[in-house]
Write a structure and sequence with these properties.
oxidoreductase; EC 1.-.-.-; NADH Oxidase; NAD(P)H_nitroreductase; 5 strands; NADP; alpha+beta; 7 helices; flavoprotein
């Protein structure tokens, strides 16, 4: 089995607690995002963009999350608020993947959304190939307009997710796997 197939076979997401410093530096991150962007893109619309959250910005966004959570859940206790405040403090780099699909006469929004999903999967694979690891998460903040505004998303943009990136605490070959679908349940052959 070649290296690429082996990487795909072994890839598993680590929890954000297992994504340690260092994360990719700026040059490495640009290379990672460049490679992640090599996806099928009908019409060359580039219906995605990235917002990088690192350093002090992680704490700032965590404070915004805690404030918004408290506004939506006035009875939230200090432990719940601390969870929200610390949401972006585990991994050293977080990339918010923004979907910017647009009406097009020939390319439906659905195709554009699939392209954004391909960018996310490529990003996870490229991180692994570069010696890092990633975890693609959403959570309530990915759908909350206050958080989207804080990240600079326009009203027509959506957040596909937060990709948390860091140095893996567990080697690729040592990661436990989850149950995978039985191929007999999800493969059919037209005409048979």
């Amino acid at each position: 089995m070649n290296d690429t197939l082996n990487l795909i076979k072994q890839r598993r997401s680590l929890s954000t607690k297992q994504l340690n410093a260092p994360g990719p530096d700026k040059q490495q991150l640009v290379e990672i995002l460049t490679l992640a962007s090599r996806v099928p893109d009908h019409g060359k619309l580039v219906p995605w963009r990235f917002v990088v959250i690192e350093g002090q910005a992680r704490e700032t966004l965590g404070n915004v999350m805690a404030t918004a959570f408290k506004q939506s859940h006035p009875a939230a206790d200090s432990e719940m608020l601390e969870t929200e405040q610390q949401r972006f403090m585990k991994a050293p780099v977080i990339v918010a993947l923004v979907a910017r699909t647009m009406p097009h006469p020939k390319i439906p929004s659905w195709e554009q959304q699939l392209t954004v999903g391909a960018v996310a999967m490529n990003l996870l694979l490229v991180c692994e190939a570069a010696g890092f690891s990633g975890n693609w998460l959403t959570g309530w903040g990915a759908f909350d307009r206050r958080i989207l505004n804080e990240l600079g998303l326009k009203p027509i943009e959506k957040l596909a997710g937060f990709i948390h990136i860091g140095t893996p605490a567990v080697a690729l070959a040592e990661r436990s796997d989850r149950a995978r679908p039985d191929m007999a349940d999800i493969i059919s052959y037209y005409g048979e």
